[in-house]
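dumping this here so i dont lose it
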């Protein structure tokens, strides 16, 4: 579980405890009124167990604050959506995972994306996407049969970048290491970097690259995508973090600004990409 999701879960437990204390009840008294065990009340307050919506209703009714039930259930649902395990997600298949994001991308006026390890999804070539999705499927032990179709589903939204309708704008920041992580081999990487050089010229795209030798103000970390200032998503090894909580959104807006300040743009970024592309071309010719 991500730090943010764990912190939100802990904060919810503290909120439940404060409601109990404001009602003047100890754990045993709340247990008697709510029908829950005293040990469960302790686990809920210390975030060692996640409450159900029925638990929230019982808690509020027992504490004499039924008017708080809708608010707390809404917060609980938000917390539950903050962390999604890939094993559970993969049950629906990679095609579903890729296709369902398209409406979100279509409605987003400004997408800010940071990646430390791979090219942002909407900028990936098909061959690169297939390599990435194949690696993910093998890591998580899921079938490879729908990788090709899932790649097509991801690529189906790339026109939002390349067609340039004026509605969808993009600000990308990537670490230099993205150029060095050779998904698919030299030929695939050469094609991918060529595409990056092309999209850099688009009026709706800002692509910055954090050079390896520059002074850092924040560490390299997990990639994240900020959709306007309405939703942030971040992927880790075993699951994905997502939230609409205002305090989390504000943090990622600030974080992206600091990452962007470390990046180089224009000719400086193109020179780094060109150098990496030439290296892959040389590797391919020598193989």
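and the seq i came up w/
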């Amino acid at each position: 579980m991500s730090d943010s999701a764990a912190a939100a879960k802990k904060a919810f437990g503290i909120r439940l405890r404060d409601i109990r204390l404001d009602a003047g009840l100890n754990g045993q008294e709340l247990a008697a009124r709510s029908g829950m065990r005293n040990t469960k009340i302790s686990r809920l307050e210390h975030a060692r167990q996640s409450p159900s919506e029925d638990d929230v209703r019982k808690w509020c009714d027992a504490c004499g604050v039924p008017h708080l039930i809708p608010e707390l259930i809404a917060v609980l649902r938000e917390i539950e959506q903050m962390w999604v395990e890939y094993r559970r997600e993969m049950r629906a298949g990679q095609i579903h995972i890729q296709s369902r994001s398209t409406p979100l991308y279509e409605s987003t006026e400004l997408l800010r994306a940071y990646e430390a390890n791979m090219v942002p999804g909407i900028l990936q070539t098909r061959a690169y996407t297939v390599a990435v999705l194949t690696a993910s499927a093998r890591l998580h032990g899921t079938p490879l049969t729908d990788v090709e179709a899932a790649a097509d589903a991801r690529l189906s939204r790339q026109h939002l970048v390349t067609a340039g309708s004026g509605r969808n704008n993009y600000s990308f920041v990537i670490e230099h290491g993205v150029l060095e992580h050779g998904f698919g081999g030299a030929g695939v990487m050469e094609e991918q970097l060529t595409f990056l050089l092309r999209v850099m010229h688009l009026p709706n795209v800002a692509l910055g690259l954090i050079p390896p030798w520059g002074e850092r103000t924040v560490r390299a970390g997990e990639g994240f995508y900020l959709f306007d200032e309405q939703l942030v998503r971040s992927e880790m090894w075993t699951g994905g973090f997502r939230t609409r909580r205002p305090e989390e959104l504000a943090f990622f807006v600030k974080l992206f600004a600091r990452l962007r300040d470390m990046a180089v743009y224009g000719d400086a970024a193109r020179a780094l990409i060109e150098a990496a592309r030439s290296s892959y071309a040389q590797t391919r010719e020598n193989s």
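The beta strands are 83-85, 110-115, 169-175, 205-210, 224-227, 231-235, 239-243.
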